[in-house]
């Protein structure tokens, strides 16, 4: 199976169509939504109607029958237009993928059509206050009670719980044979008794809010468990690789948006009778930022290709590298864009300064760059583990 390193014609058409949609909404729309404390409902609904939110989900459930490659293109182009949809990372990419790959027929019928059309949204709860990056220390536990499951624990930094219909929660169950805890995924409806949320105040200008979740003896029916109890770890990583690819796409889109604004400014802003973009001190760093974003996109395409081809191990390495490269490239691109505009780069009018915090997110979430360097050190290079 060969992998074209350039977009196929279909991919180019998809990019152009999504870019046109993004241009109709753009940064003004995004900024006004943030300012008014609202959500990007209109853009989400239209993207769903046009079939963009479910391009990666199976056709039999209303999806586009494509893969993470196509979904990443959608998010990148919306980001490049200045109006990225963060919940795309979570709802169709993580939750949709996990349910499509591992869910029962009933679960697929119940959730996938809505996730594909965008009429249903799902959040994803994995991070815990005391576990950090160590997913082996998760303390959210699920125990059987008759046919039911009872879930207890806490989660933090869960995006969009205020409007998600359900949250896919990573809990741990006791292995009957060994007594050891193993990860399992549960679908928890937003109104489940004992399921409460508290908003975390963030220094981020984003429509999606972050929440801490408390699960206090949340009773779930047997069919809330996604797939097979023994395949928990495999299922988890099947959801985490798309999350990394999509985070990379999110960061690349943001970096492209920032560079485009800066290039536009450098072309038109004249000081000493010539545009500032004629000076190499302005031009070269923007060219460098563009190159870094292009390189990150190439690795993102590789990761999506491997994942869609069913190579989970290869995709794991590439998705980590893509997320690392995209996070670094986005931070550099945004910093340089703000710098290019000088004082204007910090004004509300140009709206670039808020991207400084937003770009920083890709360095720490969904996994920090240090954990990626750990992964590459011992998985790829075969160096001993430090933890």
Number of helices: 10
Q: End-to-end span in angstroms?
A: 37 Å
Task: Using the alpha-carbon principal axes, give the shape.
Answer: globular
**Biggest sheet statistics:** 7 strands, mixed
Low-confidence stretches: none
The pLDDT mean sits at 95
Radius of gyration: 21 Å
Question: Which structural class best describes the helix and strand composition?
Answer: alpha+beta
Helix residue percentage: 40-55%
Give the beta-strand count: 9
β-sheet strand percentage: 15-25%
Spell out the helices and strands N to C: HHHHHEEEEEEEHEEHHHH
Summary, kept brief:
With 387 residues, this protein is α+β, with helices and mostly antiparallel strands.
Describe this structure in words.
The protein is α+β, with helices and mostly antiparallel strands and 387 residues long. The chain has 10 helices and 9 strands. The strands form 2 sheets. Strands 1, 2, 3, 4, 5, 6 and 7 form a 7-stranded mixed β-sheet that branches. β8 (270-271) and β9 (274-275) form a beta hairpin. α8 (312-340) runs antiparallel to α9 (354-364). The relative contact order is 0.11. The model has no long low-confidence stretch (mean pLDDT 95).
């Amino acid at each position: 199976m060969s992998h074209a390193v350039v977009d196929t014609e279909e991919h180019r058409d998809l990019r152009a169509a999504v870019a046109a949609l993004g241009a109709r909404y753009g940064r003004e729309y995004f900024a006004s939504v943030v300012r008014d404390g609202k959500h990007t409902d209109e853009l989400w609904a239209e993207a769903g109607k046009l079939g963009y939110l479910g391009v990666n989900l199976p056709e039999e459930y209303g999806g586009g029958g494509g893969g993470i490659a196509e979904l990443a293109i959608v998010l990148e182009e919306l980001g490049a237009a200045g109006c990225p949809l963060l919940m795309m990372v979570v709802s169709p990419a993580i939750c949709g993928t996990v349910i499509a790959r591992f869910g029962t027929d009933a679960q697929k019928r119940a959730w996938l059509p809505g996730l594909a059309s965008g009429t249903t949204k799902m959040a994803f709860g994995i991070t815990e206050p005391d576990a950090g990056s160590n997913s082996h220390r998760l303390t959210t536990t699920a125990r059987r009670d008759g046919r039911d499951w009872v879930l207890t624990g806490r989660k933090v930094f869960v995006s969009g719980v205020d409007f998600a219909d359900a949250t896919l929660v990573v809990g741990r169950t006791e292995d009957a044979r060994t007594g050891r805890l193993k990860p399992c995924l549960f679908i928890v409806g937003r109104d489940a008794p004992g399921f409460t949320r508290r908003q975390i105040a963030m220094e981020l200008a984003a429509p999606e809010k972050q929440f801490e979740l408390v699960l206090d003896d949340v009773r779930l029916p047997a069919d809330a468990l996604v797939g097979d109890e023994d395949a928990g770890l495999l299922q988890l990583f099947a959801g985490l690789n798309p999350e990394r690819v999509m985070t990379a796409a999110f960061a690349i889109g943001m970096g492209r948006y920032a560079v485009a604004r800066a290039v536009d400014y450098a072309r038109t802003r004249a000081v000493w009778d010539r545009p500032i973009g004629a000076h190499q001190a302005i031009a070269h760093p923007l060219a460098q930022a563009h190159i870094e974003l292009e390189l990150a996109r190439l690795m993102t395409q590789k990761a999506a290709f491997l994942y869609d081809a069913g190579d989970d191990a290869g995709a794991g390495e590439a998705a980590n590298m893509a997320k690392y490269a995209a996070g670094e490239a986005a931070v550099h691109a945004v910093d340089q864009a703000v710098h290019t505009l000088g004082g204007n780069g910090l004004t509300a009018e140009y709206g670039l300064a808020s991207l400084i915090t937003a770009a920083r997110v890709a360095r720490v979430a969904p996994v920090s760059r240090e954990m990626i360097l750990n992964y590459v050190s011992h998985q790829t290079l075969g160096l001993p583990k430090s933890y």
